[in-house]
Amino acid sequence: MTDEQGADSIAEGLADGMGGVEETAAAATTQLEAAADLETVAALERRLLNRSGPLAEAKSRIGALDPAERAAAGRRLNEARARIESAVAAARERLGAADDNDDRYAAERLDLTERLPRSTALSRGRIHPVTAARYRLEDVFVGMGYSVEEGPEVESAWYNFEALNIPDWHPARGSFDTIFVNLGEPEEVMLRSHTSPVQIRTMENREPPIYVVAPGRTFRTDTADATHLPAFNQIEGLAIDRDINLGDLAGTINTFVGALFGRDVETRLRPSYFPFTEPSAEFDISRPDGSWLELGGCGMVHPNVLRNCGIDPEEWQGFAFGFGIDRLAVMRHEIDDIREFVNNDVRFLSQF
Amino acid sequence: MKVLLSWLREFAPDIGDAADTDTISDVLTGLGLAVESVTVTGSPPDGVVVGKVLDLRQHPDADRIQLVEVDDGSGATLQVCCGAFNMAVGDLIPLARVGTVMPNGMEIASRKMRGQASEGMCCSEQELGLGADGEGIMILNDRLGDAGEHESGSVPVGAPLGEALGLTADVLWDLEVGANRPDALSVMGVARDMAAGLGVAFEPPDWSSSAAGSGTDLVAGLPVSVEIEDPSLCGRFMARLLRNVPQGPSPAWLAARLTALGMRPINCVVDISNYVMLELGQPSHAFDLERVAGARLGVRRARDGEIIKTLDGAERSLAAGDGVITDGDDSVISIAGVMGGASTEVSADTSEVLVEMAWWDPPSISRTAKRLNLSSEAATRFRRGADWGDNMVRCMNRFVHLASTLGAEAVPGVIDERGEVPRRDAVTVRVQRVNRLLGTGLSARQMAAHLRSIGFEADPLGDSESGGSDAGVAGADEVAGISSAVGAAGADEVAEAAEAVLKVIVPTWRWDTATETDVAEEVARLHGYENIARTVVTANEAGGLSPYQKDRRLVREVLVGAGFFEAQTMPFVAPEALAAAGLNSGAITLANPVDERESMLAPSLLPGQLRALAYNQRRFNRDVGLFEISHVYLDARDGELLPDEREHLAVAQSGAEAPAAVAVLDLLTEALSLPAVELRTAAPPGLHPHRSAEVAVAGRVRGVVGEIHPEVLEAAGIEGRVAWLQLDLQELLDGPRARRRYRPVSKFPPSRIDLAFVAAEKAASAQLERAMKTAAGKLLARVELFDVYRGPGVEQGWRGLTYQLQFQADDRTLTDAEVAEVRERCVAEVSKRTGARLRG
Asked: Could you report the predicted ipTM of this complex, rounded to two decimals?
């Protein structure tokens, strides 16, 4: 007898006033005991026990029986179901349960490398590599107790030059290659040529002690090429306190260079000239081959600069330093043409 | 500034012996004269020997190459392929052997040219770095004696070329000199520092004895007069008269030094002037005295509009304040300290040359040079501050000395007029103050020794030697009370005491050095920055980012998480690009733009983003999502000098429609807790008139959202649609935020119903949503549009909008009746406000 016929006969037996339920269960048990594989067991289980199967169907007809017979019929049905279920369990036991799970899950197999980007992929964008460099710098200085200040990109001659001890005739003015803006008197308003104006704004607005860094965009009349852009980014540091000295400046530079480039990178200061610091220095970092790479400028804030901001240079003193942010990103990622920073090709931007 | 070792040694004879080239370079860099390059000159490279041409043959397969058989002294005969044809058999030539590294960096290798072996290279002067002649091979016959000597073997074929020619190597340093070091724009100034750094003697030569008749008492005999009419312009004016000055080219040695230092030799007078300037730092100017009307020089400020034709042939219009030199007719014949005039230029007919040396007020020269955009070697030195002291006499003597050796005759007498020179009051330097600034523990004696090594006078105040000047020094000083405190102690103790003070007189060649801090810098420089102990200060406060800076980082994180790439664009924009972007072309302009077409500062991030999107599209990057946070520049507000500068956020997504931009706005609204964000119907400039809106936050417009105008996209060459969001980030982040207040999650099940409306196109979905929120009040937990339908069954100008509403109460399960009632209220309110009705 086929599985189907077996199930049908049970249904018939039930329909026939619940007669032959036990026989049907016995027949099913025999079939299950004879089943040669788990698929047969699963098929029998489905046909006999699922919601649209013969036992369920028979159960739905109990309501039509005489009330006196209902309880007995229900009990017989439950017994038959329990018998079949235990036969199914026994058959599974006999044929090995582990294989059963494997088969079931195998049917659900997915190829995880089958990926349809349009419909399923989540894509992440990127922050700009220069922003990433700026974050790294900000985080190092915040860790050293500095806060981050910002200022306008269009500045007056007072903030960009005069307050920084660079009067109009000063020979250093020309070296800033300033881009001027048609506002006010000629050369009175300009795109800031360095981040140093933020020093002045900070000292005007805050009482010492002051520990700040000022990252931001700066401008020079450089034609764009592989190593220049007319707009680029700098970071400026300023520390004003009672007894900050040149040794503190050297040590501070050494500390943040270590944090940025690794502890084995050495630093040196060598005398230089900036109108807004005195003594002034350039600072270099060591390359693996032992040579030096110039990173930026620094020095002790010039007493005239302090005075211009209403700070008494007899009471307070401090240092300032500045260097390029873009160049850090160029060095880190070995970028050979910095125009890529402003081309914004996503194939470039997605590499960081 | 370039300097030659041989020239430096004329001022400090021991420097070449005291240290090698690398050490000298380190010393110079350590003193603040950063070495940009070091070149060994005047000597051929190792490996170049005297060779003798034994045979010359045409290359069988190349017209322009001949095969040279050369005896290199080793006994073997080498074949060399050569492109020059100026040799004859028997000539002596420079032969670079295989392995020689030439001055240009090329290494000579053994190779084949069209099948013929070449075992070396025959060299020209230029190739060897020995001269300018690159036309043919350098023929050594004359320089090594006559041919007979070659034959007799007295000229060593195979000898190193440098040795054979008696050439000695020289070293050329190119130094970076700061604007505070006018003295270091001369060989002598560099030598002074170098001698101090190396600890050797600095001994400038004395040319006074050879400069006949230099006494000022002889001035009466000079047929010329000088008057300084404006003493604030000119601190000192010296002049001497020379006759029979040779007109031709300078001797080779002089020309060679000028060339080495980067100046072109012109003729004797000009070259001597330049030589003295490079050597001693003092520029000079030569007038043809016959062409100076009245044989009188005057010094004054120019009047507005005065005209002069300068040496370079240009007509220049002067402004009041420019310094000028005039003749007896009061006509301008020279722009003081910047450039001489053509009318009195020395020429072949000149019989009497008047040599002028002067000290000019640096700010005056600087302003004039800048205004005229006229830079000269002289102006470079004057604007930094030349030396008004004894050096000017030295320079005049040197000029006369050089001219005399070339045959000129110096007329006895020298003019030496004085105007106002900078005051050289003694600077009071507090030892403790300097140590506090530098982080050092130097004694007064140590500081004084450093300062004296470069020509500063430095004496401990109160020392017996300088005791007489105490009162004067203290009186001139800003620090009161020091002198009496010091005076109470004994002189020996003073030098090392905490209150120790140095009286420092700064030399006249350091114009811009005048304060205690200036002197402290000199002490630091000579002590050596590397000898200062490194310490680290820590702020006595917590650092950190401001709330604005933190939120700005959050904005970036949110956008990156949503798949957008951060772009950075240039803020420069062309007026046409602004117009093409649909923006008002009234933007702030630049006086000297880098690219003259891009003469404006962008008032919006739109032009920059358009450029970035177009760049990507041209490179086949489709569906690009970019964002940028940058400043925009708007017209200054009333009474303000600087522009109204704001930080904006722009988000652009190509291949996407307006709702994509709204979705980004929603994301930011949630991340930043923006309160009451609403879209207001508007047609912002540059955006699609029917697919854009203004973004209002808490009732204030903070930006725009939608799609870029199709015509703007077309003008930018961008295909497809571009979703666009631009927000005033500053206003947004500094503005009000919704408080995130905890509300218990309801324990009671929600009831969901769908409402399908037919609404006129003009009725915004947001209006319907607002109506439902008003009607349902707190019971409406969520409302979500889930279908928009246009098509059959809905008339033209209307569309179907289906919402799912979720009702929920915090304190009970809503009954069917309650849900039905609130549903009715929603429908009624929507209908009342928008005219929308339920779909049949």
From this structure: 0.83
